Fold this protein.
Amino acid sequence: MFKKNVFQGKQLALGSWITLAHPAVAEIMANAGFDWLAVDLEHSVITIREAEELIRIIDLCGVIPLVRLTSNNPDLIKRVMDAGSHGVIVPMINSAEDAMKAVESVKYPPLGKRGVGLARAQKYGADFDSYKEWQKDSPVIIAQIEHIDAVENFRSIISVDGIDGFIIGPYDLSSSMGIPGEFDHPYFKAAMSKILEASARTGCPPGLHSVEPDVSSLQKAIDDGFKIIAYSVDIRILDVGARLGANHL
């Protein structure tokens, strides 16, 4: 617990996504060698109780546990942070105001507005002082850029103090443009270029969720300069691996 934020700086931070609540899934993924793992509450049926258990397992395996939220909800942020998450991935950040709301929800006053309680994160009260210091600048706060409005407001979003980086959600972004899943469409490519050019000028670490478990796509993302990369998701890794075996003969 109380690890330094590895998303600050220019090194590659490679992680993955968890949508299955069984603790063995988190343990297998955590022992695979990822830097971080995100428990996905947005597109799964994982409960807050199950999320706490997954966070605990990931943390005890020495990997950074994050939570992808259902929404930019201060009450949910407070609960997952108290459960021991080292940070949050916040969907649909479309403005600087959205980004500031997320940061304020993670941090205690006077830096933020998060309510103070005693739970797993604070070692049930035994190490509150250390946690109080840690939460000032070490929690990971990642903005998801997944709407055309976010592209238009991108510079102001990533300029918010406390935002450590961003992850592009390609499916939602393309859908907001009226071209769902058409990643080779000129409009989508232009939006991606705009994001990456602005990111390079500001020094904000760019991120991408590479959904399919394809190492060539992962390498391309690295070669393209992405620093925060989510490599696939547990259900796609399971599905693709199973089909490779089943269709081998």
In short: Residues 148 and 177 are 6 Å apart (CA to CA). The chain has a mean pLDDT of 94.
